[in-house]
Amino acid sequence: MPTCPRCALLAVALAVAVFTGCDSNNPGRDLDLVDGIYTLEELTFDPTTQSLPTANLGELIDDAGTTLEIFGGDGEAQMVVRYENGRPSSRIELEVGATRGRASFEAVTQDDVDDLADIFLPDQFVLNYDEEANVLESTFTQTGVNLEAFDPDVYRDQRNNRGTLTIRFRRL
């Protein structure tokens, strides 16, 4: 421990700088950058099995009516999924954080987890954001996807598939 007053002051100043400068445990510091309402532009699942066609979930849901609203100050988001086939809309509550070009989302309840699974999304996912293009998007590998539930005619007996999920939202 420093014994001179200047050394002690320098040690305290250094400690304060280290602890306030390293905020890597605060995933919400960039929430103001992603705050807003987004509309779905793309949601597809490309199975790794080459004989299977890409599943365009846009055929199942209303792209323009499916929105993601991020409440930056609260660290909360809400995804509203509107279906084309007369099925009732889903309102999915999410916790959200954003830092260094990435926004992370996590379902709040088991019902939210189930609603995300209906559109092939996991209960936790990360989207990259581009401020200039006003988009949140990502492509990631998914496993255990039940394609038969999406389209039983095209994907008969395809209940456990691996592939690439692509999702893109654009800020309104």
Map the helices and strands.
Blueprint: H1 5-21, H2 31-34, E1 36-47, E2 55-56, E3 67-71, E4 76-81, E5 90-99, E6 102-107, H3 110-118, E7 124-130, E8 135-145, H4 147-150, E9 161-171
Antiparallel strand pairs: 1-2, 1-3, 1-9, 3-4, 4-5, 5-6, 6-7, 7-8, 8-9
Summed up:
This protein has 172 residues and is an alpha+beta fold.
Structure description:
With about 170 residues, the chain is an alpha+beta fold. The protein has a single domain, classed as Lipocalin, CATH 2.40.128. The protein is about 20% helix and about 40% strand. It contains four helices and nine strands, in the order H-H-E-E-E-E-E-E-H-E-E-H-E. It has helices at about 5-20, 30-35, 110-120, 145-150; strands at about 35-45, 55, 65-70, 75-80, 90-100, 100-105, 125-130, 135-145, 160-170. Strands 1-3-4-5-6-7-8-9 form an eight-stranded antiparallel beta barrel.
Largest sheet: 8 strands, antiparallel, barrel
Strand order of the largest sheet: 1-3-4-5-6-7-8-9
CATH class: Mainly Beta
Distance between the termini: 56 Å
Q: Could you say which structural class the secondary elements and strand pairing correspond to?
A: alpha+beta
When the domains are counted, the total is 1
CATH topology, by name, is Lipocalin
Given as residue ranges, the uncertain stretches (5+ residues, pLDDT < 50) are 7-28
β-strand number: 9
Task: Give the % helix.
Answer: 10-25%
- CATH architectural type: Beta Barrel
Shape: globular
Strand-residue fraction?
Answer: 35-45%
- The total count of helices amounts to 4
The residue-averaged pLDDT reads: 84
H/E topology pattern: HHEEEEEEHEEHE
Question: Compute the gyration radius: what is it?
Answer: 21 Å
